Structure formats: C-alpha cells, structure tokens
Amino acid sequence: MARKISVSRQFLKKSMFILLFLLLMATVVIHNADSTIRKASVDKLYTELDSIPKREVALLLGTSKTLKNGQPNLYFQYRVEAAAALFKAKKVDFILISGDNSRKGYDEPTDMKEALVAQGIPSDKIYLDYAGFRTLDSVIRAKEVFSLTELTVVSQAFHNQRAIYLAQKYGINAIGFCARDVDKYSGFKTRVREYFARVKVFWDLTFGVKPKFLGEKIEIH
After folding, report:
1. Per-residue pLDDT for the chain (221 aa), expressed as one digit of tens each?
2. Per DSSP, what are the bridge partners of residue 178?
C-alpha cells in the first residue's frame, strides 16, 4: 500500500512539473508574439485627426453590430465613428469595409456601410469586402483583390497593431487610426482572445496560410 502511494506521488510530481513547464513555454510564446507585434506598429498608430497622414483608402475592419445578448456592440459603434471622422476630415477618399458575410442573416460589411451612410458618408465612397473572415483575409485581400499597397487601418489600437504587422509582412504600407476602446470589463474576453490571435499570426505566416477566398480584381476609384 505504501509503495502505491509513493508511486502516485511521484506521478503527481512529474505531471505537475510537465504542466508548469508547458505553462511557462506558453507564456514565453505569447509574450514574444505580443512584443513583436507591438514593436511593428511603433509610430504607426494615430488617435488624432490633425496628425495622421492622408491616405487614399481606409480599411475598416468588420465586427458584429450586436452582441450575443442583443445589446449594441461598442466595438462596432466606435469603429464606424472613427472611419466617419477620418473621411469627414478628408484624411481618406474611400472606405473599404472588410468583414464576415459567411452565413445567412449575418453581414458585417453591409451593417457597417449602413451605419456610415447614416453618419453622412456617401455610399459611392464605400466599398465592401464580404470575405474578410479574419484579419489575415482582410489584409491580404486588400492587396490581392483591391490592389492596395498603402492604406489606413481603422479599428481599436490592439487590433490595428496586429493588422499593421500583417500588412508589413505582405508588402503593404499601413498606418492605423485608433477607434475608441471599450472599458476593461466589457472588453476582457476580447483582450484575452487577442493574445492567442497574435500567436496564431506567426503560425499562419510560418505555414503560408491563405485567405479562404480571393477572386477577381476590384478597382477602387
């Protein structure tokens, strides 16, 4: 009986050691991914309209109009407000909205376009990318489908950082206009997911992951 208890304790100690080792490795990987992406966007993020350089096109990254509980999504509202302000300040000439339209009744680009038009943005200055299922897809399609090599990304700062890093890797000169962020409590889950999304960036780049769809060229003019 004593021997069985001893073996069980040894097994438990080994299991705990392996678990702690894996947690340490995960922490290092997440930290390195986060640090690398942050450094890539140094001096490329703007919060003031007066200081941001003019670009022809803004890439507005999509998100859902409402939360699962039916409440308005503040990420959506603040991104739309930022894109509208950028256009009205004549810092961009066109807005390309890239978002998810992968299932019936769910259409991020159209929802954002309607919100922008409601704020006075001319509909003919807005282009829609219905296959921006992920930030990776949105960035690559901006270049491969819409022929953009220079743009202003519009989203919250943490999201802009990741998009700018991806843009650099695919030969796009990108800066970011940062929409207002949500409070720490409301955005906690999003921030946690962001750390894993940053690790996923390096997985995708390493294995050459491509957008789900590309398609014919679309000219913005």
Report:
1. 555 556 567 777 777 767 776 676 667 667 888 889 999 899 999 999 999 999 999 999 999 999 988 899 999 999 999 999 999 999 999 999 999 998 888 999 999 999 999 999 999 999 999 999 999 999 999 999 999 999 999 999 999 999 999 999 999 999 999 999 988 766 788 888 888 899 999 999 999 999 999 989 999 98
2. 155
Q: Is residue 176 within 8 Å of 44, Cβ to Cβ?
A: yes
Rounded Cα distance between 161 and 139, Å, is 12
Tell me how far apart the alpha carbons of residues 71 and 213 are, in angstroms, rounded to a whole number.
Answer: 31
Q: Are 157 and 181 in contact (CB under 8 A)?
A: yes
Rg over alpha carbons for the chain, rounded to the nearest Å, is 21
On whether the pTM is more than 0.90, the answer is no
Going by their DSSP bridges, the two strands 94-98 and 57-61 should be labelled as parallel
Q: How far apart are CA 62 and CA 79, in angstroms?
A: 8
Query: Phi then psi for 171, rounded to 5 degrees?
Result: 75, 30
